[in-house]
Amino acid sequence: MDANQTVHLVATLKAKPGKAGELHRWLEEIIPDVRKEPGCLAYNLHVDRSDGSVFVMIEAWESAAALDAHGNAAPFRSLQSHFEELLAEPLALQLLSRLA
Q1: Could you give the dihedral angle defined by the CA atoms of residues 88, 79, 64 and 46, in that order, rounded to the nearest 10 degrees?
Q2: pLDDT by residue (tens digit) across 30-84?
Q3: Residue 93: how many CA atoms within 13 Å on its side-chain side?
Q4: What is the spatial distance between Cα 32 and Cα 12, in angstroms, rounded to a whole number?
């Protein structure tokens, strides 16, 4: 695997008021299946210590193609189908390339 092809991703999801618990459950539910997807190197859920309604997925994928496949896979699609009811703002994605 070429480390330069690895895609690191930070996905930030902000829950609507009163929806943090539900969003947390949905995120945790898909983690085991996502971690089994081809090319998934890391898929870790975090919460903002100063705002419990903000969840951050820190991800690493072998390639852009693996990340694209994740975006079309059933676990993420299932979560995505609830975004309108759960998210206070659009999903924010930050794609990163490791430098050092």
Answers
A1: 60
A2: 999 999 999 999 999 999 999 999 999 999 999 999 999 999 999 999 999 999 9
A3: 9
A4: 19
* Three-state secondary-structure class, residue 40: strand
Q: How many Å apart are CA 10 and CA 96, to the nearest integer?
A: 8
**DSSP H helical ranges for the chain:** 20-35, 64-72, 74-80, 83-86
Cut 0.90: pTM above it: yes
Per 3-state DSSP, the chain is made up of helix, strand and coil in percentages (nearest 5) of: 40, 35, 25
Identity at 25, one-letter amino acid code: R
